[in-house]
Design brief:
The complex is a heterodimer of chains A (271) and B (328). Chain A is an alpha/beta fold and 271 residues long. Chain A has two domains: 1-95 and 186-271, 3-Layer(aba) Sandwich (Rossmann fold); 109-185, no CATH class. Chain A has helices at 58-65, 88-93, 111-117, 127-131, 135-154, 170-183, 200-216, 228-234, 252-256, 259-266, and strands at 9-10, 13-14, 18-29, 32-43, 47-51, 73-78, 81-82, 96-98, 188-192, 220-224, 237-242, 245-250. In chain A, strand 11 (237-242) and strand 12 form a beta hairpin. Chain A is globular and about 65 Å long. Chain A starts with 8 loop residues before the first strand and ends in a 5-residue tail after the last helix. Chain B has a single domain, classed as Orthogonal Bundle (ABC transporter involved in vitamin B12 uptake, BtuC), CATH 1.10.3470. Classes of the chains: A alpha/beta (271), B mainly alpha (328). The A-B interface holds A 66, 68, 87-90, 92-93, 97-98, 100, 104-109, 113, 116-118, 120-121, 123, 125, 127, 130-131, 133, 180-181, 184 and B 191-192, 195-201, 203-204, 206-208, 210-219, 322.
Amino acid sequence: MADGAGGAVKDGRTIGGVLMDLSNITLRFGGVEAIKDISFDIREGEIRAIIGPNGAGKSSMLNVISGFYVPQEGEVWFRGARRPAMKPYQVARQGIARTFQNIALFEGMSVLDNVMTGRLTQMTAGMAAQALWLGRAEREEVANRERVEKVIDFLEIQHIRKTPVGRLPYGLKKRVELARALAAEPKLLLLDEPMAGMNVEEKEDMSRFILDVNDEFGTTIALIEHDMGVVMDLSDRVVVMDYGRKIGDGTPAEVRSNQEVIDAYLGVAHD
Amino acid sequence: MPDQVLFALEVTLNGLMAGVLYALVALGFVLIYKASGIFNYAQGVMALFAAMTLVGIMDGQVPFEHLINVIFGTDIHGFGWQVPALLAIALTMAVMVLFAWAVNRFVLRHLVNQEPIILFMATIGLAYFLEGLGDLMWGSDIKTLDVGLPQGLNGWIDSVTFEMFGYGFFIDNLDIVASVIAALLVAGLVLFSQFTKQGRALRAVADDHQAALSVGISLSFIWVLVWSIAGFVALVAGIMWGAKSGVQFSLSLIALKALPVLMLGGFTSIPGAIVGGLIIGVGEKLFEFLVGPLVGGATENWFAYVLALLFLVFRPQGLFGEKIIERV
């Protein structure tokens, strides 16, 4: 499998060194091996896709990266350091933001408040100072609001800023979730099926946003997606999983011509 | 104005004041339920425990005095000092925070992802444990709590109403103080939950645990925080009730009165807890005044529960609660 050389330039974007390296990850649930000895890396600035048929272990992989699952074997390296077993909130504080397959938003809060929660990791002022809007707390809040407004503008959700999230249609909820993740200024953004359940128009919008985010903020993105067309258009490199194993890794073109990948997608009998 | 109307008015006012106290207890339930989905049966006992601890510290009691004396054959009877009320309240609060931490460390942490009913059972156990601990630490005798709150007839209201209507209203000073403090407490809670990072995190956890984790919120920190706040609310309720009717076991039973309040107001709504408390307070006093004589009195014992029952039948989510719709 060919890896793009470090510092490669693609469409005017710079793909840097290795941001996250997963080596020999194995994850078991009881007797079931959801992930079997998988290794791959994610480079700075790239869009990395994880694809595979249903039940291939893609979401489990994403959950390993975001700390929701702790693998029994293997190492996770992030920004050049080996990551010890961590709680999901600690991973988030390291600069890894994510969205969920079945949208996890704060339904009772407005869009603005939801996106603001993305800034929680960046707030340091004391509790009393915040409640009373004193000095640093005020400056901090203003700075946070600026970033949040920028993200909201960027994702074109200004018109629903004050709307409670519970009332929004599915497509917009997905966008708000992306906004919340972006507000955290993540080093690595994980998207779990960002286009699941969307119509063609919404898919096009979301694809555009993902490309723009990568372009404008230089955010490294790892995503899971079912729609092959979308994946091939969006991503720089693709990992293909099937039955918990890695069966392909490379550029979209390479992956497309990989016999094992074709078999997995066309449903050749496993023996 | 006819006498009956004046009496009813006075009864209503007194009902409002009593309702404030119900609301205070209900508030503790709502806070924990919202943030963690746990119905904390121990909330009433927490109020009792807080009040006992406060009295114990103020009177300079040695914790576990009786136990120590029995085991070591010593004869200790208190430190022999008096602690000022404010300092004692601060120390009691520290004890409640410690309790919140211990609950999370030794109970809740081991029950993550369990059914709500299991967590509820755990809090029942917690209630009995805390009740026993309170007795063991501070003794089981009835104590009086005096943190210097004004008590007795409010002369000003009495004379003003007397001049207006020719009939002086009897309003207890303690009830007025309780109302003011409850209002301040609620205002403080609102400020905290709307404008601080921790408050925002708390609301986030109340809404969705997974999403909260993904934005870097530590669930265990939030749970210690919310149990501490519930401990603080319990302390305030314990002070008010304790000053009114003494610190004794029956204090933990006021928690039962909070149940109908919650059914009226909804388990997830802070305004609901307050309005529910006021409705129950006024309702039971007025009902006793108007209907009580016809049915032989003592309606205050059951009125709240019957009202709650009616709500369960016709509006199970309460006045302000979220309507629960399960999609299948």
